[in-house]
Design a protein that fits this description.
The chain has 520 residues and is α/β, with parallel strands linked by helices. 47% of the residues lie in helices and 10% in strands. A 6-stranded mixed β-sheet has the order 1-2-11-10-8-9, with helices on both faces. A 5-stranded parallel β-sheet has the order 4-3-5-6-7, with helices on both faces. The chain is globular and about 75 Å long.
Length: 520
């Protein structure tokens, strides 16, 4: 980090010691233009930052911090296809996946996905039982599951006239499989193996379980135009190991990260749920935010502001957690998606130069539907000793009493968190207020607006990583547990578990789990 950046970092530390920044009512009283100055709008999204612990001085210093981190150069490098994934020495191509004027290869891969979907929905292609598809089961985990599931649920109303239902089979769990099997006709179901590498152990095991079931079912006879499996992957060679014809393999670019991949063929379940026209609108919505992020000056750049405010709380106000609270059931899976996006991308202690960081990075993120949250953990928001920033998210297009009730509750919660109350002698009822929050309003829940929302958060995570000087496109920590699990399975298969050199606690637990008396 350069000296200007460090000097700015230290200046922000000094500013954070000013306790008046935590007095929200005073901040509003001191600035009659605060609401206007801290509110922004882009496309279908309106965002109000005014209930946050900052003023124009803090914001200007945060903006200067981003300049000294060479943020604009890094943004330009992202969109120019430079090798910003320094660990793997390759670019990050998720923004290219949603461009209308993309590369020839990306357009070709997208068209392949469209063609596969059209052939199955039209009945030109059938399952391996010679029947038309009525259900799609996505076999994938992590980024190959969370993004598609979020999008399918968020756009559930678009499926009203869709005779094909979408299911997800992410974890190795017999109960989950039984639940899916109770909901589908196996002979009319298309299984989509979603994995960038086709090497994820959970996805492989689940695929093997499904393949075994199909093989045991009367009438199963795969042919050229009768297949019960398709694959979305960046590893076409590995797809051949699953006996899937090349015509049924939907490729995407190897430089598109898994948790950023819903825009690629990993989004096949979304395409099957909402159709080509709406899926294209989903991509176009994200591309609109890409244009805003690339071309808008940083002081009016919404993803930049979102990221800088989060850095302010994490590193200078020392708030270690962050909540995402959508007040729309269609966005129920947004917290889980964002949890992976933020924590897997930026949960790092080593910077891009291999040096240990002296500060914390990703906050601990959680969330749930707002109405449910109010009756669960909001008590801690209002009266707990710890404070955390909150993103409230609402959708305002539906004019109904129920929808109005939800949005009124959302606004009431943000107001209560800011203002608190003091009921005199009722000490147990005292709420201190001054709890920060941001409110995000979508004009409607459309394919385009969902694409916009997801792209905002993707770019927020990228800006965070630039400020923290880390690579948000790798996940080496995730691989450690996978390696140990593979090691255990391999030793089990060779019947030599006791030579694994595990710690005593894990050996004891493994012995109980497996009933293996030879584990010492």
């Amino acid at each position: 980090m350069n000296q200007n950046f460090l000097a700015q970092w230290n200046k922000l530390k000094q500013l954070a010691s000013n306790e008046t920044l935590m007095d929200l009512k005073s901040l509003f009283a001191e600035d009659s233009k605060r609401v206007n100055d801290f509110s922004f709008e882009v496309e279908d999204i309106f965002i109000d930052f005014s209930k946050n612990w900052l003023n124009s001085t803090v914001l200007n210093h945060l903006l200067d911090l981003s300049k000294y981190a060479n943020l604009q150069d890094k943004i330009n490098a992202l969109f120019a296809g430079k090798n910003i994934n320094s660990t793997e020495n390759k670019p990050a191509t998720h923004t290219a996946q949603r461009k209308q004027q993309a590369s020839k290869q990306i357009l070709q891969d997208r068209q392949t996905m469209f063609d596969v979907a059209e052939k199955y929905t039209s009945g030109q292609w059938l399952t391996a039982f010679g029947k038309k598809v009525t259900a799609v089961v996505n076999i994938g985990i992590g980024g190959s599951y969370l993004g598609p599931k979020l999008a399918v649920q968020a756009l559930s109303e678009l499926q009203t006239n869709n005779h094909i239902k979408i299911y997800f089979y992410p974890c190795v769990d017999d109960t989950a499989l039984k639940s899916i099997l109770n909901s589908i006709d196996l002979t009319r179901t298309l299984f989509c193996i979603s994995s960038k590498s086709l090497g994820t152990i959970e996805t492989i095991r689940n695929t093997e379980s499904i393949d075994k079931l199909l093989q045991q079912t009367d009438g199963y006879k795969p042919e050229s135009n009768q297949q019960s499996f398709v694959a979305a992957t960046a590893n076409i060679e590995k797809a051949a190991d699953f006996n899937i014809p090349a015509t049924h393999v939907m490729m995407f670019d190897h430089a598109t990260g898994g948790r950023f991949s819903v825009w690629s063929s990993i989004g096949f379940p979304v395409l099957m749920a909402i159709g080509k026209k709406k899926f294209t609108e989903f991509l176009s919505g994200a591309e609109k935010i890409d244009k805003h992020f690339l071309e808008t000056s940083i002081e009016n750049n919404i993803p930049v502001l979102m990221a800088l405010i989060s850095v302010w709380y994490r590193n200078f106000m020392n708030l270690s957690a962050y909540a995402i609270i959508p007040y729309d059931i269609r966005l129920k899976n947004l917290p889980a998606w964002l949890q992976q996006l933020m924590m897997e991308s930026n949960g790092k202690m080593i910077d891009i130069n291999g040096k240990h960081l002296s500060f914390s990075t990703s906050p601990w993120l959680f969330g749930e539907h707002g109405q449910l949250s109010q009756h669960a953990f909001f008590q801690a928001f209002h009266q707990g000793k710890d404070v955390l920033p909150i993103d409230f998210i609402g959708v305002i297009e539906q004019k109904s009493e129920s929808q109005d009730f939800l949005l009124i509750n959302m606004l009431a919660q943000s107001a209560a968190l800011m203002n608190g109350n003091d009921d005199g002698d009722e000490k147990q009822c005292y709420c201190p207020g001054n709890r920060p929050s941001t409110t995000i309003l979508l004009k409607e829940m459309s394919a385009s607006s969902l694409g916009q929302l997801l792209a905002l958060y993707e770019h927020m995570i990228f800006v965070q990583s630039v400020i923290w000087n880390i690579n948000c496109f790798d996940q080496p920590g995730v691989e450690l547990g996978k390696r140990i699990a593979r090691n255990i399975v391999e030793h089990m298969q060779q019947d030599n578990i006791k030579y694994m050199n595990l710690d005593q606690s894990t050996e004891q637990l493994l012995s109980r789990v497996l009933g293996a008396s030879n584990v010492e």
